[in-house]
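Translate structure to sequence.
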């Protein structure tokens, strides 16, 4: 039976980082941290591309079907340039409540998704929802990553709350899906803040959408590994 309590679920994963040396989960922290250094003008774009490549590889994105396996890390360099454009920088540490129907924040995020898709597509890389959302999770962390385990976790959750449509999460990527995650986070704000506080006490900052990502990913992982 998957752990449905938010605090216990997320920490079942996070505590692996604390107990297992050089755990692959750390690659997200390194990528996110370096990208923020870059935004503060304390890093360089080439190294940011390398961090992004390794994070994506450690989270399963360098399979042959994506064509990333046939590219070097600098294929991500134009993506880094796009991410740090002035019009996208306000996505950094954004208040999750800013994402609502028709808001500038929501529209900018969706425009960024479209721009990243084109950049990868022009370079012969399959610009799937999984890849694009993982890139944004590793940099601005204002989207969860729509991979198979994450989506399986959503399926489990939706089945669990099927009698209450207001609690259901929309699986298909898009504006309505993003807003359903915002509602989920705000409906469970105390649990998420408690979780973020624990992680912060160990020296790491995990934004709201990263915590949402961990919760549903862990549900999916626990279902498939039982």
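Result:
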């Amino acid at each position: 039976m998957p752990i449905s309590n938010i605090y216990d679920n997320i920490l079942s994963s996070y505590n692996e980082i604390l107990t297992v040396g050089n755990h692959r989960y750390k690659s997200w922290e390194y990528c996110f941290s370096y990208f923020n250094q870059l935004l503060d003008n304390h890093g360089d774009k080439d190294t940011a591309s390398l961090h992004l490549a390794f994070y994506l590889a450690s989270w399963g994105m360098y399979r042959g079907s994506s064509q990333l396996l046939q590219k070097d890390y600098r294929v991500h360099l134009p993506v880094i340039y796009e991410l740090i454009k002035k019009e996208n920088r306000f996505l950094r540490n954004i208040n999750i409540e800013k994402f609502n129907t028709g808001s500038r924040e929501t529209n900018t995020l969706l425009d960024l998704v479209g721009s990243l898709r084109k950049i990868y597509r022009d370079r012969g890389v399959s610009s799937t929802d999984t890849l694009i959302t993982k890139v944004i999770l590793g940099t601005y962390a204002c989207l969860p990553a729509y991979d198979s385990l994450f989506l399986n976790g959503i399926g489990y959750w939706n089945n669990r709350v099927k009698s209450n449509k207001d609690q259901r999460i929309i699986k298909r990527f898009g504006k309505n899906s993003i807003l359903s995650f915002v509602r989920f986070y705000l409906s469970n704000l105390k649990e998420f803040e408690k979780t973020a506080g624990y992680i912060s006490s160990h020296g790491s900052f995990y934004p709201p959408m990263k915590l949402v990502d961990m919760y549903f990913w862990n549900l999916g992982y626990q279902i498939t590994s039982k």
